[in-house]
Design a protein that fits this description.
Two copies of one chain form a homodimer.
Chain A lengths: L5 H12 L3 E5 L8 H6 L8 H18 L6 E5 H5 L2 H17 L3 E8 L3 H11 L7 E4 L9 H10 L2 E7 L6 H4 L9 H12 L12 E5 L4 H10 L5 E3 L9 H4 L10 E5 L1 H4 L9 H19 L4
Parallel strand pairs in A: 1-2, 1-8, 2-3, 3-4, 4-5, 5-6, 6-7, 7-8
Helix pairs in contact in A: 3-5, 6-7
Chain lengths: 299, 299
């Protein structure tokens, strides 16, 4: 199934769209365009169904308007779980919609558990879904990841394992230095290298990727070199503070191999830009796309 | 709100039931009693709704039959997510049912993410729910846990943070030795100590607990001493191999402070015991309850 290896799917999408942009769907009611909230009667009191309807119109509009700017859609499932059962159903609908529009779809679920439970999570989040890849937490070690690796090898699915995250307190555990001289995150990076062996597609990239925050440019550049052939999912752009110049070194020498996520700065661009919220989001994503393309040495 | 601190809620339940047993709800279709599967028409083809109905009858029966044996119900959300939207709705119904029957309810969700996302997860899994406590992953560090800690301090909710897990490959990351001489899991244990300060209830136990696998008895005993006042959730009993003797040292000198989870060995006890599946589950749980009560020096 070489044509359907996740590494190829991701790199093909980057080339086709000429974009490293992953738009993060992190819907939050208080940040949605006021005219949309009003249209759904969400001024004061409201029920979850009205919120779901409002989210669906907003997120569908975002997907439609970004189709030439973003290669990847990353759905942060927490914001859907926060709406309960109706939110979970919306998550599934938005996954399908994003896939049908030609995006590579990442389910940002960050699951991690013992083997039997991981099998249930893999069934839940990959089997029979339109999700191309999910994010995973490495704390349990390999037996808790193996059910996902099997879907990488057999079904062409992808995973992105947390290596170095973008948040301020990521250092508390991840930057601890082991007796070997390696940090915890370098130890995990080496494990990610070992776990992904043999999952390369035709373009040389694997189905087992890594999450590397864009907010730590030096560490990120070193991790790019440490994990050749490992696709990177880079959060932290925009609202979290990472800039395109910082992120340039997270691409490989061909200017590919990484996608960069931005959620709030794109979704809620109407707050700082003129015009309709769709136009504002598209302008923000286009500017990000161009800045990253340059930073990758492609333009 | 001293009367509703999670440490008190948990220790009160242990005393009231004279039980350290947490029953894990990990429903798996292939393991369910054959007569129940037949009754729901689940012989060959089936749809998710029939599976949900079968799970609901089974899990409700388990909750009813264990009410004098188990103090805690731990719902493993992965098995519910594997059924999609209908499974998620079942999770919510089973949480309410367990709470109404007087169990302490732990949502075994093992979430972990950056701060803004953690806020959404905390809203999803604690706010307005009948869940008393959730399990969390420490890889992101404190800013990804703080939204949950706020609910510990303000709402009397509880958390159990992964320290040393029960699975075979837990050593790959957790047993790595830092330059300080501490293992990664000891480093996390010390962080759990710091994070929980000031959340003690009247019985001296905190709202910030730890997951410590029962399959590593020496490490578990040392962790008990290292984290005084930290409630422990101990997986690994039964199907995963930990025995009551191994677990005795995870209790404090008053024979409390820890609850021990067993899922498959209780739920599917009908496979090795005589009689109805309810009776088999109750007998298995009663035996476990007595063995733990003795191991805790209480009988």
């Amino acid at each position: 199934m070489s044509g359907s290896s996740f590494g190829d799917i991701l790199l093909d999408a980057i080339e086709r769209k000429r974009s490293h942009v992953a738009v993060g769907l992190d819907p939050e009611l208080s940040l949605l365009p006021p005219e949309l909230r009003s249209a759904h009667g969400l001024a004061e009191d409201h029920d979850d169904h009205a919120v779901v309807a409002c989210y669906e119109e907003f997120l569908t509009g975002i997907l439609e308007t970004l189709v030439d700017e973003a290669a990847v859609v990353k759905l942060q499932i927490a914001y859907f779980e926060a709406l309960g059962v109706a939110g979970y159903a919306l998550y599934e609908r938005m996954v399908r919609a994003a896939n049908e529009m030609g995006y590579v779809v990442i389910g940002d679920v960050k699951r991690g558990d013992i083997g039997s439970t991981a099998e249930a999570y893999a069934k839940a989040h990959l089997d029979g879904t339109a999700v191309h890849a999910v994010t995973l937490n490495p704390y349990f070690g390999s037996d808790g990841l193996e059910p996902f690796f099997r879907r990488v090898r057999e079904d062409g699915k992808g995973v992105f394992i947390l290596v170095k995250t973008s948040n301020p307190s990521s250092a508390e555990l991840q930057d601890q230095v082991l007796g070997s001289g390696k940090t915890v995150f370098e130890h995990v990076a080496d494990a990610v290298n070992a776990w992904g062996e043999g999952t390369e597609g035709a373009r040389g990239y694997r189905g087992v990727g890594a999450v590397v925050g864009g907010t730590h440019p030096e560490q990120g550049a070193a991790l790019r070199l440490r994990m050749p052939g490992v696709p990177l999912l880079v959060p932290g752009y925009g609202a979290q503070g990472a800039k395109a110049e910082d992120i340039g070194r997270l691409f490989d020498r061909d200017g590919t191999g990484a996608v960069v996520n931005s959620a709030r700065a794109i979704l809620y661009a109407y707050r700082t830009r003129e015009g309709d919220w769709r136009d504002a989001a598209r302008q923000e994503a286009a500017q990000m796309r161009e800045a990253l393309w340059r930073a990758a040495g492609r333009a």
